[in-house]
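Consider a concrete sample entry:
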Amino acid sequence: MKLEEFGYALADASHAIKLDLNYAKAYYRRATCYLQILKPQSAISDFKKVLALEPKNEIVRGQMTATQKLIRKIEFEKAIEVEGEKNPVERCHEIIAEGGPITTICRSILTKSIGACDLESSYSGLS
C-alpha cells in the first residue's frame, strides 16, 4: 500500500482473508484499499468485520464513522444535483440576453445575488 499499488494490496488482503477469516488486520487493510480506490461502501463492510473481531478498536470505529459521513455527503450531493441544470442567475442572464422581459423572480434573483447590480424598476429587458 505504501507504493500506492492498491490493486495488489487489495488482492493480497483478500487472499489473507481467505486463508484466515478472523484476520482483522487483513480486513482493515482491505478497507483502507477500498477507500483509496473510491469504494467507501465496501470499506464500511470491512470496517464492520474488524469491529466484530475487535469491538474495542476505537481507531477503526472512528474511521468507519468518518467513512459513513463521507457516504452520506456523497449521497446528499447526488440527490441535490440536477444534471445540466443552470443556476438561476445564469438563466436570468440568458433571458435578458435573449431580449425577454425581466420577471419579478429574475429581478429578485439578480438583485439579491452576490455581485449582481440593482435594476431599475422600469427596465424591461433589451430593446
Q: What stands out?
A: The chain is about 65% helix and 0% strand. Residues 58-80 form the longest helix (23 residues). The chain has a mean pLDDT of 79.
